[in-house]
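During the reporting period the student researcher (J.K.) took over the structure-prediction task from the postdoctoral fellow and processed the backlog of single-chain submissions. One of the processed entries is reproduced below for the supervisory committee.
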Amino acid sequence: MSPKDMEKLIGQVVEIIYEDKAGKMTQRRIEVHGHKGGLLRATCLTTGGPRVFQVERILAWRRVKVNHAG
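J.K. obtained the following structure tokens:
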């Protein structure tokens, strides 16, 4: 994921497949807040908690369309 791609994702909901440092892969839905130095700051929408992801460990990503009620 290039820095230009990351910039476009700020404020967006994204689904990622992520490999942690132990080699465990997880699929997460996150809201992207920012990026700096190869790190992506986000809120994990599964746990509701803040997270920081190493961009090089994001194996796949796609934007998620969010339906707003009202």
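The committee noted the following: The chain has a mean pLDDT of 89.
J.K. will present the remaining backlog at the next meeting.
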